[in-house]
Amino acid sequence: MDIMEPTMWLGTEDGCIHVYNCNDNIRIKKNKVKLQHTAAIQCIIYLDGKVFVSLANGDLIVYPRDLDGGWNTTEPVTITVGSAAASITRMLAVQGKLWCGCLCTVKVIDTTTYEIEHSFAVHNDASRPIQCMVTFGLGVWISIQNSSVVKLYHATTYEALLDLNVSPAVTKMLAAGCDDIIRQHKAACLRITSLLACKDLLWVGTSAGVILNLALPHLTSTTIKLSSVPSISGIPQIGRAHV
Q: What is the pTM of this model?
């Protein structure tokens, strides 16, 4: 493989990573490299010139560059971060560090030493793992599976700054566009299903089909609490399916 060409890495449930040249038509050309692992591929992320791969057995595999600038696929680094019962299901690049979501716990990895630099629990219910993680500036927003609450953490101090329940905003939007039965059903099983931080706004997708957004607060290196709670707005179009 030409080391100067961009590549695309695809992971599969059988533990295989297929590496393709981005300029190739993958329907008619075979993968350039095939990397087999001992467990299913959960996440793949590129950070600091390295590819980080999380496996279903709790391991984190790191593929660095070799001396020629190509990928060192023969001698990857293996880091035990979680376990088969608590594998890494979410990864996010935050201020030069790698945040790994293992069930309800975040583990912060130094991408140079490969050490776990910090670890903290987002909540105490291990049956509800981390669903989404996004970052903007010095803030990291996290949602939990089957929860209508989005949490804000400081990217460098790891301080918990905000727990924001979107239920009132969704209920208000549903009241304007649903009959009573549908509104009660959507409200009863409400949960956050997606997050996106873009252009100073946090966009929140919900199981009710309502899309919300809020202005992202400006955080500094010394922020320990927010001066005010961001107000939530909704898009006045209610879908039938999850967002």
A: 0.91
Structure tokens at 89: 């299901």
CA distance 176 to 179: 9
Between residues 210 and 135, the one the model is more confident about: 135
Q: Exposed, middle or buried by CB within 10 Å (0-12, 13-18, 19+), for 125?
A: middle
* The two three-digit tokens of residue 91, written as one number: 């990864």
Amino acid at 56: A
Rounded to 5 degrees, what are φ and ψ at 174?
-65, -35
Residue 222, CA atoms < 13 Å, CB-side half-sphere: 0
pLDDT one-digit tens code per residue, 24-69: 777 777 777 899 999 999 999 999 999 999 999 999 999 999 888 8
Contact predicate 144/164, CB 8 Å: no
Terminal alpha carbon distance of the chain:
39
Question: What SS3 state is found at 32?
Answer: coil
Token couple for 232: 């939530």
Q: Which residue has the tokens 């059903």?
A: 185
Tracing tokens 């955080």 back to the chain, one arrives at 219
